[in-house]
Amino acid sequence: MFTGLVEEVGILEVMTGSKEASRLAIRAERVLDGVQIGDSIAVNGICLTVTSFTSRQFTVDVMPETMNKTTLGQLRRGQRVNLERAMRLGDRFGGHIVSGHVDGTGTVRSREPHANAVLFRIAAQPALLKYVIPRGSICVDGISLTVVDVDHASFSVSIIPHTLSQTSLQDRRPGDLVNLEADVIGKYVERLMGMRDAAPKQRTEQQSRLSLAFLQENGFA
Questions:
Q1: Cβ pair 90, 14 in contact under 8 A
Q2: Across the strands, what pairs with 139?
């Protein structure tokens, strides 16, 4: 589990294999503090397992499913990537719940100065956009961000100078692909609502209380 607060920007030093499966070696410093084989590190928002490490880099294996559904297959040697270690029990929770399981990719449509920030508009598929709401949370390349607005084809996020300078978003331009993970709470609510609608009429009174009105009254929707 992660929070979407990037700890450092690493550098992809080695990429071996193919677009079906690959092994990455990433130069890093901060995330190597106390690292062990088997630890989880989010790379551009993708939860990957450390398979080996030295004092200056760590390696991860990437399976076909991950290569097919994320931007990892498009990475090139020397490219900067966002890194975050899995959170520890008792850590401050400064972002939002991020699983590191990417829902899909989006395309940067525009990047425009907006007062002291930069406004990014990102196009995404309807299947992902249905979980995106204004002022809600979304993870973009491993960064916990707040949604400004959303329409039928895209959403926008406003990036403050600190976030821009401390993450790989500084490299993103219109046409670039980014990894997207929607807020997990919305996905669970949808699943529970679907199970409720499909449940038999004999469901208990307690089960029947789960409705959109109930969720709205209690601040979940």
A1: no
A2: 144, 181
Identify the pLDDT of residue 218.
Answer: 67
CA 104, CA 15: separation in Å to the nearest integer?
22
Phi, psi (rounded to 5 degrees) for 28: -155, 170
The amino acid at residue 211 is S
Evaluate whether 3 touches 93 at the Cβ level (below 8 Å).
yes
Task: Please give the pLDDT value at position 188.
Answer: 86
| Whole-angstrom distance, CA of residue 90 vs CA of residue 67 | 32
Cβ atoms 22, 73 nearer than 8 A:
yes
Distance CA(193)–CA(116), nearest Å, equals 41
pLDDT at 217 over 90: no
Reading the block at residue 146, the tokens are 């707040």
pTM above 0.70, yes or no: yes
**Residue 144 falls in which region: left (phi positive, over 0), alpha (psi -120 to 50) or beta:** beta
Q: Which letter does DSSP use for residue 92 in this model?
A: -
